[in-house]
Amino acid sequence: MDNMIWVNQLGLHVDEYEVSVGEFRRFADLNPDYITTADSIGWSGVFDTQKGQWGMREKANWQKQDGHRVTPDNHPVTQVSYMDACAYCNWKNGRLPTANEWDILAGKEVIKGNVWEGPFPYQDEGKDGYSKKIAPIGQFQPNAIGIHDLFGNVWEWTSTEKSKDEFIIKGGSFLCDISYCSGYIPSKYQTTARDSGLNHLGFRCVYEDE
User: Fold this and answer.
1) What is the C-alpha radius of gyration for the chain, rounded to an integer number of angstroms?
2) CA nearest 65: which of 153, 171, 128?
3) Residues facing 58 on adjacent strands
4) Which residues in 169-185 are b (16+ Cβ under 10 Å) and which e?
5) Tens digits of residue pLDDT in 73-130
6) Do residues 174 and 168 touch, judged by C-beta distance below 8 A?
7) Is this structure's pTM higher than 0.90?
8) pLDDT tens-digit profile of 33-69?
9) 3-class secondary structure for 47-66?
10) The domain spanning residue 44 has which CATH number?
11) Which of 60, 95, 127, 173 could form a disulfide with 200 if both were Cys (CB 3.0 to 4.6 A apart)?
12) Angle between helix 82-91 and 21-30 (nearest 10)
C-alpha cells in the first residue's frame, strides 16, 4: 500500500503521514455532494496568534484554513470535523484509530516536530523552522516504525468518545508547548466536540488487513 506502514502489533496499516489538503481535495472532487461541517455552517475555529485567543472565522474551511489564504496541497488538512474525518476514512476503506491504537502507533519516545517554542501565546521562537504556523507534512524525523508527524504540527482525531459528543484528540500541534498543553507527549490528550473544525486539528486513517 502506498504511503502506509504495517504495524504488526495492531495488525493494521496506518497512513505514514497525516491526510494532506491535496488528498482531501481528491475526496472532495470525487464526492461533490459531500459538504463539510465548516462549509455547511459558513465558519470555523481559528486561533489568532496576535490576540492569543480562539475565534470564529467566516469562510474558514479545509481549503482556506484561516478563512483567507488558500492552503497548499502539501499541508495537513485541518478544519475538518469528526464526521468529515470519518467520511474520508470510510471512502478510503479505513477508519480513525482509537486513542489506544494511536498510543501504540506513536510509541513511548517523544520525537518533537513543529511545536510552540517560547512563552505561549506571546512568542514562538521558531527554532524548528516554523513560527506560529503549520509545517508541510513529512518535515520532521519519523518515529521508530516510520510514521511521520505524530508529535506536534496538528492534533489528530481518534474514534474514542470521552464524553457525550466529545472525542479524544492526540499528538499536540504547533500551538502546544511544554507549559501550555504539552500535547506532543503521547500520554497527553484533549477532547473536542465532534462538530468542531479547528485550524490545528487534522487526522490520519488506519486500515484493517485484508
Assistant:
1) 16
2) 153
3) 43
4) bbbbbbbbbeeebebbb
5) 999 999 999 999 999 999 999 999 999 999 999 998 888 899 999 888 889 999 999 9
6) no
7) yes
8) 999 999 999 999 999 988 889 999 999 999 999 999 9
9) EECCCCEEEEEECCCCCCCC
10) 3.90.1580.10
11) 173
12) 70
- Asked, as a colleague might, if the bond just before 121 is cis with ω within 30 of 0, I would say yes
Q: 66, 50 in Cβ contact below 8 A? A: no
Residue 202 CB partners (closer than 8 Å, separation 6+): 18, 19, 76, 77, 78, 80, 154, 155, 156, 157
Q: Give the largest CA-CA distance in the chain.
A: 49
Three cell numbers at 199?
A: 485550524
User: Is 197:169 a contact under the CB 8 Å cutoff?
Assistant: no
Quick one: cell of 190? 484533549
Burial 97-127 (b: 16+ CB within 10 A, else e): bebebbbbbbeeebbbbbbbbeebbeebeee
Please give the tally of structural domains in the chain.
1
- Does residue 202 contact residue 77 with C-beta atoms inside 8 Å? yes
Residue 116: domain span: 4-208
For 148, the grid coordinates are 511521520
Mapping DSSP to helix (H, G, I), strand (E, B) and coil, where does residue 109 land? coil
Name the CA dihedral angle for 184, 15, 78, 189, rounded to a multiple of 10 degrees: -30
Q: Which residues have C-beta within 8 Å of that of residue 69, sequence separation ≥ 6? A: none
- What cell numbers appear for 134 in the block? 503549520
Amino acid at 122: Y
CB 153 within 8 A of CB 17: no
